[in-house]
Amino acid sequence: MTDDAPRPPLGLAFVGCFTTARRRARGQGIDIYRVGAGLDDWTHLGRVDGLENPSFLVTDPARAVLYTVRGDGTSATAFAVTPDGTLRSLGSAETGGTNSVHQALDPSGRFLIVANYASGSVALMPLRPDGGLEPAAQVLPMPGEPGPHRTEQAGAHPHHVVLSPDGRHVLVPDKGLDRVFVLRLDGDQLEIVTEAVLRPGAGPRHIAFHPGGALAFLVNELESTVATCRWDAGTGTLTPRHLVPTLPPDFFGASTAAAIVVTLCGRFVYASNRGQDGIARFRVDGARLEPAGWTPSGGRDPRFMTLAPDSGRLLVANEQGDSLTEFAIDPGSGDLTQTGSRQSPSPCTIAFL
After folding, report:
1. Are 257 and 224 in contact (CB under 8 A)?
2. Are 172 and 117 in contact (CB under 8 A)?
3. 3-state class of 222 per DSSP?
């Protein structure tokens, strides 16, 4: 995009929703909103339908492009965001694997890096100058022995793609192998540098860095825990140091952990529980997390969470509760207070531009 080209308006939100019977879904695609002061003030601008399971969204502000992978599918799609907030398709391309669940832009803006959950690989997809996608140029299998869970760990299941704070490494939690792989992009090829090994059956799902850069917090889906990890940027080494449960001590039902969020001040961490349907709150105490309580998520199966653009609110997508829920974050204690809710069918991801 040239400097004199029209740019989309500030304050857009995109909500991706599951759409298929396999996902027990009621969604219709990607909903587009103009963002207000709170969820109740969001204005629905339109929808892109006809997409099967746009399960994770990321934006490229420099090009004003939105990217989505397709849950249970084999492709990713790019959209140009027009000045009025509508989405114009730039086409789709094959990810080289199945059930692509998460993606990230490399710092140079040359590639989209995609986690192919079902086929156990990470793909490197070249980007055209306009932000459109080319088919995967490299598909890197994740190596290792599967964990002990008979159904959820049948093989490698990379679930997240996160850049290190300096942009030199790519971290990939693998739920099936109980590992976090640390990759490096060397020219136009990804290579594995190191790996961190978690407890058998932990099921690493998502990871988030502390703003200080020396710590990362890893949520383990299957055992419902958060591991505090040391990050060595020089060697690209992630070392688990401390573990806390995401579930209250008096909860005995079935539940799996899903999303993790770190506040920009670095003092508080939140993890969501699907089944218990709550948000676990933690205070950061040095290189440890201290449990600070649990808050109802406002709906069933809180799959995804993110900070609102003002960073003072936490937004939660309750996938089976058909709702987006907003919480104010107390800047002193980190406590959550529900301040809004909006109906949304089968929401599973939120992205802002």
Report:
1. yes
2. no
3. coil
83 pLDDT band (50/70/90 cuts)? Answer: confident
25, amino acid identity: A
Average pLDDT, the chain: 96
CA distance 182 to 38: 37
Structure tokens at 217: 């917090």
Give the tens place of pLDDT for each residue, 234-275: 999 999 999 999 999 999 999 999 999 999 999 999 999 999
Q: Is 341 left (phi over 0), alpha (psi -120 to 50) or beta?
A: beta
User: For 276-322, where are the E strands, in sequence order?
Assistant: 278-285, 288-296, 302-307, 313-318
Instruction: Compute the distance between CA of residue 301 and CA of residue 337 in angstroms, rounded to an integer.
Output: 19
Measured from the Cβ of residue 296, the count of other Cβ atoms closer than 10 Å reads: 13
Q: Which residues contact 128 (CB under 8 A, 6 or more apart)?
A: 90, 134
Give the total residue count for the chain.
353
Is the pLDDT confidence value at 203 over 60?
yes
3-state class of 40 per DSSP?
Answer: helix
Find, among 231, 230, 218, the residue nearest to 178 by Cα. 218
Residue 46: its H or E element: strand 43-49
Q: Is the whole-model pTM more than 0.90?
A: yes
CA distance 77 to 95: 10
Can you read off the two tokens belonging to residue 290?
Answer: 């201290």
